[in-house]
Amino acid sequence: MIKALRTTNLPHLIKDISNTFEKIESHRRKANPLMMNRYFLLLLFIEIAFACDFQGKHYKDGETFKMKNFMMRCRHYDGGYTTNVIACLTVSGTQIALNTTYTEDGRQYTCQATLGGGANFGWNLDVGDNVDEE
């Protein structure tokens, strides 16, 4: 048999229900280490899945990195990534923009973009001022 609630006990009942919900909410807010580890691993997997993998190293979208005499940039797109040359590097590390020529320390460098995101890079001795004319 169900007993009817007395209206005089109603405020106490509401307070008890409120306290119960507060305890549940407080417990829910506490960080569960196992769940935190799962979230961390999931985020790590997502980051690796959407990273450029270039010669065993991972790079984020937009990140630039040196590769021999070139500066490279990682770019993500739907379902994959690409790495493109964005500049050439002189012996001293000076960046040369694509499709330009630059002279440094007696050398004339040329950085020429190619189809597919690559570049041709070369240098010649700048002998223009040292030529003897007869």
TrEMBL record:
Residue ranges occupied by any Abnormal cell migration protein 18-like fibronectin type I domain in the UniProt entry: 51-113
A family per Pfam: Fn1_2
Name the UniProt record assigns to this protein: Abnormal cell migration protein 18-like fibronectin type I domain-containing protein
